[in-house]
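Students often ask why inverse folding is considered easier than folding. One informal answer: many sequences map to the same fold, so there is more than one right answer. In these notes we will look at a single instance of the problem. The structure comes first.
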């Protein structure tokens, strides 16, 4: 079992599926307007679910200078690889990075947690030129409060304080996140113990006893110790200086618990060439268990122009490190992140190479023993500065977010780059305006819970067989050797039924918002995202499924009591329909018809996207579970069934027990209904009729 942490920012990792190859495709970034005079680049990136909707969001830090403030730009994820427009929050001057974490403890601030107990995420940004740290407290809805400033102690002599990198962890085991800050133009480390309310205790300072200034810092239980009171891992620190990695072991008190102080550092060679000056290399490292031994390892980018790459220091079980293992890429590497990109259960490395344009992101597939296979290169946009991971399109594969340090000359727009994992470069899927309709009858109004289809081009490969879901629960992605097709409605993944080059069919999510009368559809094929399409939605749109599949002709009207001579049932038609025996109905027969658009069930708990109460496996319906009652799935509004102009009695309507998105409407054939092989039938909600009743028929004798 491999564990993965990245401490340059708090990253989210998707669970990859086995047998996948590394295949990252860059997608257009959401543009963000930077402050006046900005050179148009980004300095840092962090990933977190800032509005608690289950979709990872991105925080980009714009570049800056000593003369004007930078800003954090929040891009809320839609869950399909796209993002909402960026919202800026000023930070300070020469901000260095952005870190996300929950710095408020619900035991101290109850409002700092969601109803399920999850903590609301906040942001931390060290401001080099200002000599302070910006704390942006999250509101839980994706917005943030104005930055509060955490001042650093000014030294009696020399420059500073200049906060450089920051890491977070619970250093004294009190349940509150604390901060460790490396200070440029010095050889010191600042510690701020958290109060649990977004504020911090006065600074304590650690002299690192080195000649070089400290750079990147990370926090993890490197020494594999457990606190006695709370039985929690004890957090240690590692710091990169020129040519070395420093380990600071946490001190423990007489009770065996950490007290928020640290021992003098131990130094380990990194294999990364030391700087010609005392300035720390500007790199973002990553921490993970790369060889599965239960110890934390460190991957350190090498910014050397010719021998650059990434050096791996495998941790020993006592908190020390083995000799460095270099992975030469031949370009200036500045940032690393770790995730299982190829889905083989082994952690892989992604390394940004600033000097390797245009293929400047190297992914090194891990072997599971701390070594790596040959790197695969991708275009991550100009000069990747920082990289982070998150499953931005909800395909259970970790994607990569990049902060790009250099953008096109003269640009006043800063942006990052998102690389989607598992995608294959292909044509842009395009949706047709007005092409979203009911599968039942082609009506243009789509009600939640029903099956709808969208017309377009390049929605799937032109293979002999369409992509079809054959089991429940319905998948949110339809996949084969050629395609991975999905759809989202208002950012919510839709359960998929089938995909063809010109059509995709899916269940409209039950909780689709009807307040505006419209919803937004996006189709993604192999990581390539269509332009969003608005389409009309409403509570009802009754329609009858026909044997022709186009809402015209013979209705799928089945006898509720099938004949013993035909176990697959009888259809109320003059001729056979596939395996169904065509038998004309007579007065008093009880039929059920397949319908759509009849609205929600009485019991809101039964509205589960992509699921039905009785199983379907490989297109074979299974037995319904014990205790299943059709009445539990009755619709909140009972429709009216008209047969040849005569209202039928005994009408009930329920969600189909096997096929999500379908309804069954039971009725008794009226004694006074006309006879013939094409008697019109329609289903209607008061004031809302189904398809023209002259076009959908049953046979009555």
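Output (designed amino acids):
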């Amino acid at each position: 079992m491999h564990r993965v942490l990245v401490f340059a920012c708090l990253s989210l990792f998707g669970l990859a599926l086995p047998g996948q190859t590394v295949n990252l495709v860059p997608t257009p970034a959401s543009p963000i307007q930077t402050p006046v005079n900005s050179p148009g680049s980004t300095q840092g990136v962090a990933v977190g679910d800032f509005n608690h909707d289950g979709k990872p969001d991105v925080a980009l830090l714009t570049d800056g200078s000593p003369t004007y403030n930078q800003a954090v730009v929040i891009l809320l994820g839609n869950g399909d690889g796209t993002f909402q427009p960026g919202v800026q929050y000023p930070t300070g001057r020469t901000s260095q990075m952005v870190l996300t974490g929950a710095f408020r403890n619900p035991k101290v601030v109850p409002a700092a947690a969601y109803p399920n107990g999850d903590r609301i995420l906040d942001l931390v940004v060290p401001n080099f030129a200002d000599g302070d740290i910006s704390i942006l407290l999250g509101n839980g809805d994706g917005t943030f409060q104005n930055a509060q400033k955490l001042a650093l102690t000014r030294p009696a002599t020399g420059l500073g304080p200049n906060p450089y990198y920051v890491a977070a962890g619970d250093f004294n085991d009190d349940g509150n996140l604390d901060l460790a800050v490396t200070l440029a133009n010095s050889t010191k480390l600042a510690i701020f113990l958290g109060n649990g309310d977004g504020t911090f205790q006065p600074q304590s300072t650690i002299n690192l006893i080195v000649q070089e200034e400290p750079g990147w810092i990370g926090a993890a239980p490197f020494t594999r110790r457990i606190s006695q009171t709370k039985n929690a891992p004890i957090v240690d620190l590692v710091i990169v200086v020129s040519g070395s990695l420093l380990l600071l072991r946490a001190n423990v008190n007489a009770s065996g618990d950490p007290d928020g102080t640290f021992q003098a550092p131990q130094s380990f060679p990194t294999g990364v060439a030391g700087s010609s000056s005392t300035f720390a290399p500007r790199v973002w490292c990553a921490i993970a268990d790369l060889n599965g031994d239960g110890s934390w390892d460190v991957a350190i980018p090498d910014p050397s122009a010719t021998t650059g790459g990434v050096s791996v220091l495998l941790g020993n079980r006592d908190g020390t490190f083995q000799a460095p293992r270099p992975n030469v890429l031949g370009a200036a590497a500045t940032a690393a992140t770790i995730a299982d990109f190829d889905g083989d259960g082994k952690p892989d490395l992604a390394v940004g190479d600033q000097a390797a344009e245009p293929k400047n992101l190297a992914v090194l597939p891990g072997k599971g023993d701390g070594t790596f296979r040959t790197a695969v290169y991708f275009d991550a946009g100009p000069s990747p500065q920082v990289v982070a991971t998150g499953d931005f399109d909800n395909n259970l594969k970790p994607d990569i977010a990049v902060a790009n340090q250099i953008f096109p000359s003269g640009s006043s727009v800063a942006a990052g780059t998102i690389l989607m994992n598992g995608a294959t470069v292909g044509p842009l899927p395009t949706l047709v305006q007005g092409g979203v309709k009911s599968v039942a009858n082609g009506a243009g109004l789509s009600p939640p819970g029903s099956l709808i289809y969208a017309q377009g081009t390049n929605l799937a490969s032109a293979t002999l067989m369409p992509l079809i879901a054959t089991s429940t629960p319905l998948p949110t992605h339809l996949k084969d050797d050629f395609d991975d097709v999905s759809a989202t409605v208002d950012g919510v993944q839709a359960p998929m039924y089938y995909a063809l080059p010109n059509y995709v069919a899916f269940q409209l999510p039950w909780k689709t918002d009807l307040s505006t009368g419209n919803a937004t559809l996006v189709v993604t094929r192999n990581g390539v995202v269509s332009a969003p399409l608005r389409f009309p939605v409403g509570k009802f749109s009754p329609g009858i499924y026909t044997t022709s599949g186009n809402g015209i002709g013979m209705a799928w009207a089945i006898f509720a009591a099938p004949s013993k001579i035909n176990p697959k049932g009888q259809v109320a038609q003059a001729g056979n329909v596939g395996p169904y025996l065509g038998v004309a109905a007579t007065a008093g027969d009880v039929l059920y018809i397949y319908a759509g658009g009849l609205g929600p069930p009485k019991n809101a708990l039964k509205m589960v996207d992509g699921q039905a109460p009785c199983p379907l496996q490989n297109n074979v319906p299974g037995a319904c579970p014990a205790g299943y009652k059709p009445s539990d799935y009755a619709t909140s509004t009972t429709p009216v069934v008209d047969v040849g102009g005569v209202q039928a009695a005994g009408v009930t309507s329920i969600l189909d027990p096997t096929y999500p998105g379908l309804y069954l409407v039971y009725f008794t054939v009226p004694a006074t209904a006309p006879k013939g092989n094409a008697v019109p039938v329609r289903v209607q909600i008061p004031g809302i009729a189904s398809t023209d009743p002259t076009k959908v028929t049953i046979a009555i004798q």
